[in-house]
Amino acid sequence: MRVLVVEDEKKVAGFIKRGLEQEGYVVDTAMDGVEGEEYADAHEYDVIVLDIMLPRKDGIEVLKDIKGKGIKSPVLLLTARDSVEDRVKGLNLGADDYLTKPFAFEELIARIRALMRRGGHGPAVLKYEDLSLDPVTRRARRGDKEVELTLKEYALLEYLLRNPERVLSRTLIAEHVWHQSFDTETNVVDVYINHLRNKIDKDPSRRLIHTVRGVGYVLKKEWD
After folding, report:
1. N or C: which end of the chain has fewer CB within 10 A?
2. pLDDT 10s digit of each residue in the chain, 224 long?
3. Residues with Cβ < 8 Å from 60, sequence gap 6 or more?
4. Does residue 157 lie in a domain region?
5. 224 occurs within a structural domain
6. Residue of 12, 25, 56 lying closest to 38 (CA atoms)
7. In the chain, which residue ranges form alpha helices assigned H by DSSP?
């Protein structure tokens, strides 16, 4: 799952980013309203965490403009203000929830998960053949068996399920799952693919993860 955090306070943005990444989310950060709107235009996010008090363009204006463009990502407003007027204005413009600073990270993550459950943005459950993954509960199943995954295994499987039958290069996988440029000297992608195969592809006659030599990997069915 991908989250955009638009927050000009570096410590707060870093705190949110680190916490969400530890929960397995891919996180982009923007430090002002203009940059935040550019990110929202360029990518599809499962949730946008948007501060109201921002330089260059405040969060209310950003919210108004992205909703005007038809961007459907749920928006969670952050505000240091204790004004009912600000909260009501944001909600009337299309914000889905708000959180007043300071806040506990546990409350932030609970609000984000609630927005994802509330739905309407993206499929509730990702499924290909007899393999499924629930992005809200983070439970994976192959057939009738539940599969336990680490955070990185979850992120990798989610990326594969969001791109079935598409050949994904190691570079694309590294950038999406590890949120970093691919280092040709490392085999981390291959290692985690093997971990995932050992958990969901135990039956060699019904494998779903396939190697494309010299390129990367693809999730597809190769049996009748």
Report:
1. C
2. 789 999 999 999 999 999 988 887 889 999 999 999 999 999 888 899 999 999 999 999 999 999 999 998 999 999 876 667 777 788 888 899 998 888 889 899 989 988 877 755 545 688 999 999 987 778 899 999 999 999 889 989 988 998 899 999 988 888 778 766 556 567 899 999 999 999 999 888 899 999 999 899 999 998 76
3. 52, 86, 89, 90, 93
4. yes
5. no
6. 56
7. 10-22, 33-42, 59-68, 84-92, 105-118, 151-162, 170-177, 188-200
**79 in Cβ contact with 87 (< 8 Å):** yes
Q: Which of 118, 137, 171 is the C-terminal boundary of a domain? A: 118
Tokens for 168, please give them: 């994904």
Per the CB < 8 A criterion, the answer to whether 97 and 114 are in contact is yes
DSSP 97: E
Q: Are residues 139 and 213 in the same domain?
A: yes
Q: Which residues pair with 49 in a beta bridge?
A: 5, 76
Output phi, psi for 79, to 5 deg.
-145, 140
Residues 202 and 111 grouped into a single domain: no
End residue of a domain, out of 68, 91, 118: 118
Domain shared by 112 and 180, yes or no:
no
pTM above 0.85, yes or no: no
- The answer to whether the CB of 15 falls within 8 A of the CB of 80 is no
Residues near 18 by beta carbon (within 8 Å), at least 6 away in sequence? none
- Structure tokens, 22: 């530890």
d(C-alpha 80, C-alpha 100), whole Å? 6
